[in-house]
Amino acid sequence: MRNEQGFFLLETIVLGMILLAAVEVLGLYYSIEYMRRDSAAETTALFLAQEQCARVAAVQNSAEILPEGPLAWLGKTPCPIVKNGYSFQVESTLSKNTSSLNLQNLETRVIWSEGSKNKQIMIQRVIKCYEK
Amino acid sequence: MKNKMVHFWQKQSGYGLVELMVSLPILILMLLSLSAAFLWFLKSYLLVFSEFELHNQVRMPMERIAHDLTYADQAALLSNGIRIFVWNSQGNKDWVVYTFENSRIYRDTQPLTGDTRIGDMVITKFQCEQKEPRNIYIEIEGKNLTTGYTFSLETAVQLLDKSKDI
Lengths: 132, 166
What we know:
The complex is a heterodimer of chains A (132) and B (166). Chain A has 132 residues and is of the alpha+beta class. Helices cover 39% and strands 31% of the residues of chain A. Chain A has one domain (9-128). Chain A has one helix spanning 9-60, and strands spanning 69-71, 81-83, 86-96, 103-114, 117-128. Chain A is rod-shaped. Chain B has a 5-stranded antiparallel beta sheet with strand order 1-2-3-4-5, covered by helices on one side. Chain B has a 3-stranded antiparallel beta sheet with strand order 6-7-8, covered by helices on one side. Chain B is rod-shaped and about 100 Å long. The A-B interface holds A 18, 22, 25-26, 28-29, 32-33, 36, 39-40, 43-44, 47-48, 50-51, 53-55, 57-59, 61-62, 75-77, 83-84, 100, 102-103, 128, 130 and B 34, 37-38, 41, 44-45, 48-49, 51-52, 55, 59, 62, 66, 131-135, 137, 151-158, 161, 164, 166.
């Protein structure tokens, strides 16, 4: 035992590999957890965007017609919409469609925060605007 | 050279009993810690997967209903679901019924949710409302009973009005 002088190379390598495996495993866990949260937020945002498009289409099909320009959230729950641990902001813009007077372009963005980052999805639809 | 080798082997005395008694518990402790960490990771990994599965369980019926409504001619709200009238491939009027029974969503008699080995999942809410004449609002909420994690989605679909086709 008196001849021992510090760690052998083999011991250092084994310890290093154990530590590396532990770090990899933790990293994998956190990346999967991040993917889960991200997928939840994206799915929720996509359905909220579809809801806004349907609501706008319903109004354009009713007695009153929304003017072109930015639109507020028309859904049931108040905006910002708090769902699945996130706060979603919905912004829409209605604009003219050049191919027909009875069509309008609707662009809907759903924005949410993930840590310090702002994320968003955007969908575009062409909706019918009926003459009264 | 031969003398040196003999001398080297003679110097080796191996581990003593005390050294063995100290090193064995340390080794066992290290192995137990490693296995515990590995099992914790496996459990957490499966729990995250079960939450992914809950997303699928909620998203899938939502997509099916929204898809059927998009091409629907009419829809009627039921006390525990919705009946959607569609045109089938033969050009005849047909319908599909989505119902909420025993914490599951059924499409006609076919369950859309519930069968999974990854976790214990239930649908806790399936709500359909009609606010505007042809606008259907849908909300589905599911819960993972293993982790207590809740996931909900809401959307709305505007039915086509063929009488107003341009």
